[in-house]
Each structure stands twice: as C-alpha cells, then as structure tokens.
Amino acid sequence: MNIQIFGTRKNRASQKAERWFKERGIPYHFVDMKEKGISPGELDSVARFIQLSELIDEDSQSYKKRGLAYMEFDIREELLEDPSLLKLPVVRNGKNDASLGLAEERWKQWIEEERR
User: Fold this and answer.
1) pLDDT tens, the chain, 116 aa long
2) 48: how many CB neighbours lie within 10 A of its CB?
3) What is the rounded CA–CA span in Å between residue 46 and residue 71?
4) What is the number of other CB atoms lying within 10 angstroms of the CB of residue 90?
5) Are the C-beta atoms of 21 and 97 separated by less than 8 Å?
6) pTM recorded for the entire structure
7) Alpha carbon distances (Å) from 72 to 3, 16, 77
C-alpha cells in the first residue's frame, strides 16, 4: 500500500486521517497543501476515482473570494492554481484508488485487499 494524504496541518479531518493510519501502523506520506499543492499528475490520478466537481470545496473562503459561484471555470485549472479550493483530506492509495474526506470504511477495504 502506498498511502498519500493531501491535507493541511490545521485541518481537523486531515489530522484525523493521519491519526487513523498511524494508529494502524500503516506508513503514509503527508502532502501539506499549504506548502506544496497537488501536481497535475496527482490530480489526474485522483480524478480517475473522484469526479473533479466533488473535489472543489464550494464552502471555502477561496471559492467565495474568487467569485467562482458566479462564473464558469475549468475545475482542474482552478484546483491546480489554488490548492485551498480542494476538499480535504484526499487520500490516495497509489494509483489504485482515492478517497475524499474521512472514508474509514474504504480505507479498511484497502487494508483487507492488501492482506489477500
């Protein structure tokens, strides 16, 4: 299993995701969206499992400040330009799967599949 958690250090859901994997002794790589953002390849990999429209956080301050509710825009382009628009956490299991938010049941499935 190759777990990547895309989140921020201050985001409670990101902290919970980190804790969930840590408690189970599953190694993961944390990508702090405030520092690095998400690369085009990573976003495309995640988008194979989660629709781009689900990834954008319409409740975020960035979404409101940019006035995105009132205009047409390319979601992929906006997410790459401003990572603070991304709903968190996004957890990627290598190139095999990805989840959005606290998806503990899905993560359990990944562990079970890995053990087989």
Assistant:
1) 899 999 999 999 999 999 999 999 999 999 999 998 899 999 999 999 999 999 999 999 999 998 998 889 999 999 999 999 999 999 999 989 999 999 999 999 999 998 88
2) 10
3) 25
4) 26
5) no
6) 0.92
7) 33, 34, 12
Do β-strands 3-7 and 90-93 pair in parallel, antiparallel, or remain unpaired?
antiparallel
* Structure-block tokens of residue 12: 């409670």
Given its phi and psi angles, is residue 107 left (phi above 0), alpha (psi -120 to 50 degrees) or beta? Answer: alpha
Supply the pLDDT for residue 116: 83
Nearest CA among 33, 67, 116 for reference residue 4: 33
Mapped to the 3 state alphabet, what secondary structure does 11-42 carry? CHHHHHHHHHHHHCCCCEEEEECCCCCCCHHH
Phi, psi of 102 (to 5 degrees): -85, 95
C-alpha span between 91 and 29 (Å, rounded): 10
Residues 25, 81: Cα–Cα separation, whole Å: 34
